[in-house]
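User: Reviewer 2 asked us to show a designed sequence for the structure in our supplementary figure. I'm pasting the structure tokens here. Could you produce the per-position amino acids so we can include them in the response letter?
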């Protein structure tokens, strides 16, 4: 794994730090490392939650390093575009709960990374934007798809078409982030949420996440309810279902196996 991505495990939580100072920009190496890290975490049955944050105090991530696009090389653009897509698609499909601890500026691909997570916690000094069109580009890692879903078409157009940058309090009011915390405390809050996740059955959480995300696919309510029933029954094939119910009846803390 690249040194541009640091991975730490604490009990049932993995902490992934984007480590490319000063602005934690994404490179081909770090995008590939992110994809590899997610694959490894999905295979680790002891990990129930993932927290993504940035190194330092100012930047979560400023997105792509624009120097890599300065020569207008089409082949390189295709390579980077696919790498962004694979990496953030992998992040969005992480089987557990993913939480972005936005410790500072989240611009372009940095904001797209945060939007690929399930939950976003922003520090009060954080600012967010998708400014790609300002430099003749466009968001290519889910920005045009995830932002309207989170904030509605109007604010998505303001941020993407007008290049509007917003502060953390505005991001909270439009639904782009779930909570704003004091500077220096986003990671602590994210870890608190991750600890809450660890009390839930990981088998249940992964199926609940699948159902919630499926709502974006334009399914009918009938299809959604059918999927709920099918995955409910599917849980009875897991050890966690029996453990959870019996632990409750026996008035003890369940010991989840993620199986």
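Assistant: Here is a per-position design you can include in the supplement:
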């Amino acid at each position: 794994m690249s040194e541009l991505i640091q991975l730490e495990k604490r009990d049932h939580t993995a902490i992934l730090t984007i480590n490319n100072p000063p602005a934690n920009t994404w490179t081909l190496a770090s995008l590939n490392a992110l994809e590899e890290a997610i694959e490894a975490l999905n295979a680790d049955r002891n990990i129930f939650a993932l927290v993504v944050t940035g190194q330092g105090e100012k930047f979560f991530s400023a997105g792509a390093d624009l120097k890599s696009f300065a020569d207008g090389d089409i082949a390189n653009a295709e390579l980077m575009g696919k790498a962004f897509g694979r990496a953030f698609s992998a992040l969005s499909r992480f089987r557990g709960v993913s939480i972005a601890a936005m410790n500072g500026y989240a611009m372009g691909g940095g904001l797209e990374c945060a939007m690929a997570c399930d939950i976003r916690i922003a520090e009060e000094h954080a600012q967010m934007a998708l400014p790609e069109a300002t430099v003749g580009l466009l968001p290519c890692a889910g920005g045009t798809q995830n932002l309207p879903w989170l904030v509605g078409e109007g604010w998505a157009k303001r941020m993407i078409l007008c290049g509007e940058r917003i502060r953390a309090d505005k991001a909270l009011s439009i639904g782009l982030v779930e909570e704003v915390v004091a500077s220096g405390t986003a990671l602590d809050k994210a870890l608190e949420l991750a600890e809450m996740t660890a009390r839930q059955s990981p088998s249940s959480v992964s199926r609940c996440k699948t159902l919630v995300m499926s709502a974006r696919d334009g399914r009918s309510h009938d299809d959604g309810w059918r999927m709920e029933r099918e995955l409910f029954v599917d849980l009875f094939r897991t050890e966690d279902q029996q453990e959870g119910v019996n632990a409750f009846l026996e008035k003890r803390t369940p010991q989840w196996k993620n199986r």
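For the response letter, you might also mention the following. The chain has two domains: 5-198, 202-249. The mean pLDDT is 94.
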